[in-house]
Amino acid sequence: ILLHVRPGGELIGKLKILPDGPRNLNILLIDGRGRVVIGADSGLVILTDATHPHWIPLTEQTPNGRSRVDVTALLARDSGGFWVGSRHGLYSYGEEDDLLRLAPLERDYVFDIAADHGGLIWAAGFGGLYAFDPLRDRGAIYRDLRVSQDDPIPPRLYALNVDPSGLLWVGSWRGGLWKANLHNAQFGVRRNSTHSPFAGGSSGVAAIFEDQRGALWFGNPEHGITIVDPGGEAYRHLTSRSGEFPALSGDRISAIAGD
User: Fold this and answer.
1) For 48, left (φ over 0), alpha (ψ -120 to 50), or beta?
2) Which of 230, 231, 228, 29 is nearest to 113 (CA)?
3) DSSP codes joined into one string, 47-112
4) What per-residue confidence (pLDDT) applies to 2?
5) Is residue 74 a contact partner of residue 85, using CB atoms and an 8 Å limit?
6) Quick count: other Cβ atoms within 10 Å of Cβ 84?
7) Is the pLDDT higher at 137 or at 204?
8) pLDDT category, 113, cuts 50, 70, 90?
9) Which of 21, 34, 46, 238 qualifies as a FRET site for 145, CA 20 to 30 Å off?
């Protein structure tokens, strides 16, 4: 079920996606044509208006036959179509030819996708961080973001954002926050300290959003939202208990969007 809500919380209506369509709606974006595009289990749903969903099933050929593609991340392509993240990797989907192509990177669960100012496509998932150049099509650069090589597995990366200065922000589950200077590919880890941008002493970042002022909003899976003002020095925390704005209804944040 997709809910249509006015600012302030007033429910306008409910839209039931096709009865034989997806069970879970995982990700939502507004594309350059003003359409609502939903990534779901086994495909995409595109809404050109509030009452007519267009269901696009996505499958891929595997050694065991056709397998569904559960969409977990979405990014609109400048040329039309979408970059699609799933539990099996990164795909390119073109609406004009209705073809789904697997990008040449090591298959991995993808949680978020971002494009930088130089045209690289970044994908974050269970295995680390990938940078893919769609023009060269020569595979992806992989970066293992383990803070210590003693860690048995890389952190799960859940959120990406490229800010106007060219910094790539990478949020992880219980692993902290990274900043990558895309001009020289240097990564710096930003973790809990007396100047931590994390509310409640937690190190998890499940969502990153940049508002019109250039402030960054970090959603924590347990402790609400932290807003970092442009320049990165002033922090404001929004929780269900206190905050500069009205208190949140809950502290478990998995996504942030602006209207």
Assistant:
1) alpha
2) 29
3) ESSSS-EEEEE-EEEETTEEEE--EEEEEE-TTSSEEEEETTEEEEEETTTTEEEE-SS----EEE
4) 57
5) yes
6) 28
7) 204
8) very high
9) 238
